[in-house]
Write a structure and sequence with these properties.
By secondary structure, the protein is α+β, with helices and mostly antiparallel strands.
């Protein structure tokens, strides 16, 4: 198995610089993730300006994790939903005959 090429990048999360080595082909995903985190951080900061940065980051982590769990749950149900739609079509066809 070949070793993945790493890319060193620095991301700015609010006022914090984060320097990490990432797989080169995933650099764009890390940059997109940093943008999403910053957007969510600023969303909460605007609504709770007197809240500490530490607590805002906890809200961001909770929000993003809930979204991740909801997406994972929806993806698990998607194949079942497709099968149910197929079965409904078959039942409707049989009822028409």
């Amino acid at each position: 198995m070949s070793e993945q090429r790493k890319q060193h990048i620095t991301l700015l999360l609010d006022a914090h610089r984060v320097s990490i080595n990432v797989p080169a082909q995933q650099e764009h995903l890390y940059r997109k993730a940093a943008k999403l985190l910053n957007d969510k951080y600023h969303f909460y900061h605007r609504r709770m300006p007197s809240t500490s940065a530490e607590l805002i980051w906890l809200y961001v982590a909770l929000d993003m994790t809930v979204n991740l769990c909801a997406d994972a749950h929806a993806n698990r149900l998607e194949p079942i939903d497709e099968k149910l739609q197929e079965l409904n079509k078959i039942i409707l066809q049989q009822l028409k005959e």
